Amino acid sequence: MDWKWTSFVFAMLAFGILYWLMNRYAFKPLFAVMEQRRQMVLDQMNAAENSRKEASAEMEAQKQALAQARQEANEIIEKARVTSTKQADNIVDTARSEATRLKDEAVRDIESEKNKAIASLRSEVGSISVAIASKIVEKQIDEKSQEQIVDNYLKEVSK
Amino acid sequence: MHYFPIYTWNGIEFDLSSLLAITVSAILTFALVKLLTLKLSVANPSKAQNFMEWAVDFVHSTISSAMPLNKVRPYMSLGLTLILFILISNLVGLPLNIVTYVHEPMLGITQAMLDKYAAEGGHAEMAWWKSPTADLSVTSGLALIVFVIVHFLGMKQNTKHYFQHYFKPFWFFFPLNIIETIAKPVTLALRLFANIFAGEVLIATILMLKGYGTPFMIAWQGFSVFVGGIQAFLFTILTMVYISQAAIHDDDGAH
Question: What SS3 class is residue B125?
């Protein structure tokens, strides 16, 4: 096994050429592709991060909108309840006042009817009693009062 | 032991098996990587691309264990080329071995050698195929490339600290630092070469056992694959550590 300088030089030459060829035609494109992939992964991660942020912002907005809608709904319900209570009170009040009015009217009617009845009764009783009295008077006056009247008359005349 | 085919041209010797192995390994490495990165897609990667990206990530984590994470990028191609080329180089020698019998003087085998084998009643054997990294010339070539890169980057990017580090912790440590500087590429080359060469020597030895060697061969082939992977990884990470030591100065003074 001798040391051959031709092999020595040829080995260096071959390695140099091999290095140049590999670098130029294999590694440079390969490294470029790997770098591009690194960049791509980075971009995608950034994009994912962005869309995650966007999604959470969107979620927050939705939550707020939902809360607002719920609040509005509550307000509407509350308003409706207040309105309905007021309306019910109104109705009850109206009904009550109407009832009072009707009752008063009835009472007044009754009163007037009563008065009317009393008045008519009174007149009736008057006439009846007059009639009765006249009947009685007619009967008693006939003899005695005739005499009395005549007597009275005569007395006056004689005077 | 086998001979390797040596072609001599104008007094310059060419180790044909080594040149062949380097060429085939380099072409194989490039073809494999090109095949795996044919259809690249950002959003929908194929299995081949996934595998290649796994390799890239592996090398990335390996390099980043040696230097700060933000400095890794420029050395990715170097690390990937190193680890893939060395791994494939370590493995190509394992599955087959092309040996021819030589009966006449050719490619560095002389008549004297042939006569010696003929006297023993055997053949001179010529091995045409081996792992390129089982050749010290190749591993030292790789180590020299690493050496040049390390010191060039050190001088260019980290000039002050690079020159200062030779005199640290004290000025008289200069010779030691020089020895260390030289030892780094030498050990880098020798470690890789020795591991792979030893593996192939043992394979050649087991081959001499003929049929009885089969279980050993299975075990040793498996182990050689493991060693090949480890050595490729080691070469790459040591390269990165050396680059980190020379060219990257932590402001905290962390090494």
Answer: strand
